């Protein structure tokens, strides 16, 4: 099976929609004004406040085999003192070393469930490491191997914009209770805002439970930053498109009239995932034409028409279970990040499993976690140095913890 790098180089070059520098090592492209190799060229780049420092040559000049040996040796010596958390979207070269693999909900639970660990090495992106720091103990360190591993969706909403949104909403809708619900893909200070304002964090696993409970406390919800997860979840609950409106943070009243806001049960932030936005109904129709009987499963970050056209939708954990519960000979077309799809295809060679998107833009910031960074991080811990520690200020963490605990209590449907 072709590697993800091979797929990007071949397919992206044909359609000119993805950055074809994916095969380059992350440290060679770290200064580029984009989200990195393989990213959608349509993303607006928001630089991280603390850029990654250069890696020593020992790591950048090492072969893949040498890096594997470094990681294995350091991991063996560290033992249970350090837990490696790996998101489903990580490259295979990283996932094979993870102690726990899962979606953001699973990994948040693991960060809370292991008080015996001295440190967590989070192979994911920045907002995930922040969440692990908030939920883990005060004496536990959380490390992000590459500080440049951000998230374009999380960058589509900042605290000032969210505070301005609620100021305008309270002025337009005086006296009305409005609950903020933020997707896990958001910064710690936005999670803290939710904690202070009777709000909650959700994941794609439990968004339906969270939204249902939010409506028990208020008649109106602001869902951020992913419009598609919010819309798909609300529609599945019977909320119509006419009962939803979009909030553009760059427009007065989010680009709405006061009447539109008054009619809305769900106010959707104008954010999205560049990977999942690429999936289309036409791709599903093509899959059905080529493979009659194919089962199409997509992530709920996809646009609503794509979710409607699919046979099922759900979080990365749901997608994994769909494949796990399938039978030999089944054909499954998947609308989510290519690293996960390729891994599932390798794990189940007796099934035909493929990605709906022929261009295959990966989650480019996830891809910035390279074995060289993991080797450097683990060897530093072995030497008593904590590099790239993610620390959320306690005043922010305390409020964010409230919203996150509500998330953990909201079990997926």
TrEMBL record:
Molecular functions per Gene Ontology: 4 iron, 4 sulfur cluster binding; metal ion binding; quinolinate synthetase A activity
Cofactor requirement: [4Fe-4S] cluster
Annotated GO biological process: 'de novo' NAD+ biosynthetic process from L-aspartate
Keyword terms of this UniProt record: 4Fe-4S, Cytoplasm, Iron, Iron-sulfur, Metal-binding, Pyridine nucleotide biosynthesis, Transferase
Keyword presence, Metal-binding: yes
Top-level division of the source organism's lineage: Bacteria
EC numbers: 2.5.1.72
Enzyme class label: transferase
Subcellular location as annotated: Cytoplasm
Binding site for [4Fe-4S] cluster: 151, 273, 363
A GO cellular-component term linked to this record: cytosol
Reactions accelerated catalytically: iminosuccinate + dihydroxyacetone phosphate = quinolinate + phosphate + 2 H2O + H(+)
Residues at which iminosuccinate binds: 87, 104, 183-185, 204, 299-301, 316
HAMAP family per record: NadA_type3 (MF_00569)
Family: Belongs to the quinolinate synthase family. Type 3 subfamily.
Protein's name in the database: Quinolinate synthase
Species of the source: Corynebacterium imitans
């Amino acid at each position: 099976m072709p590697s993800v790098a091979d797929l990007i180089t071949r397919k992206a070059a044909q359609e000119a929609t993805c950055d074809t520098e994916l095969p380059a090592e992350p440290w060679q492209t770290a200064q580029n004004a984009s989200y990195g190799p393989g990213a959608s060229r349509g993303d607006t780049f928001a630089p991280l406040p603390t850029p990654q420092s250069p890696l020593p040559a020992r790591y950048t000049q090492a072969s893949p085999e040498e890096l594997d040996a470094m990681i294995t040796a350091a991991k063996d010596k560290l033992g249970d003192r350090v837990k490696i958390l790996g998101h489903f979207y990580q490259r295979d070269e990283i996932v094979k070393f993870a102690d726990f693999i899962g979606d953001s909900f699973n990994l948040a639970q693991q960060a809370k469930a292991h008080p015996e660990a001295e440190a967590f090495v989070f192979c994911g992106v920045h907002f995930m490491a922040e969440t692990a720091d908030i939920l883990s103990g005060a004496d536990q360190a959380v490390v992000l191997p590459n500080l440049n591993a951000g998230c374009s969706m999380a960058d589509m909403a900042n605290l000032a914009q969210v505070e301005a949104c609620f100021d305008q909403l309270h002025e337009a809708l005086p006296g009305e209770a409005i609950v903020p619900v933020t997707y896990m893909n958001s910064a710690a200070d936005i999670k803290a805002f939710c904690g202070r304002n009777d709000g909650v964090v959700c994941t794609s696993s439990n968004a339906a439970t969270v939204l249902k409970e939010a409506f028990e406390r208020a008649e109106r919800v602001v869902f951020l930053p992913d419009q598609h997860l919010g819309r798909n979840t609300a529609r599945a609950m019977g909320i119509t498109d006419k009962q939803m409106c979009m909030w553009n943070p760059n427009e007065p009243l989010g680009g709405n009239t006061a009447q539109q806001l008054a009619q809305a049960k769900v106010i959707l932030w104008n954010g999205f995932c560049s990977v999942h936005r690429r999936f289309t109904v036409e791709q599903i129709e093509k899959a059905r034409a080529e493979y009659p009987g194919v089962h199409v499963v997509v992530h709920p970050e996809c646009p609503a028409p794509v979710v409607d056209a699919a046979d099922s939708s759900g979080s990365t954990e749901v997608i994994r279970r769909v494949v796990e519960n399938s039978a030999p000979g089944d054909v499954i077309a998947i609308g989510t990040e290519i690293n996960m799809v390729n891994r599932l295809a390798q794990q189940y060679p007796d099934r035909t499993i493929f990605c709906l998107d022929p261009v295959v833009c990966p989650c480019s910031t996830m891809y910035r976690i390279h074995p060289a960074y993991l080797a450097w991080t683990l060897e530093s811990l072995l030497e008593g140095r904590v590099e790239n520690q993610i620390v959320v200020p306690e005043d922010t963490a305390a409020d964010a913890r409230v919203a996150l605990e509500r998330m953990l209590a909201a079990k997926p449907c």
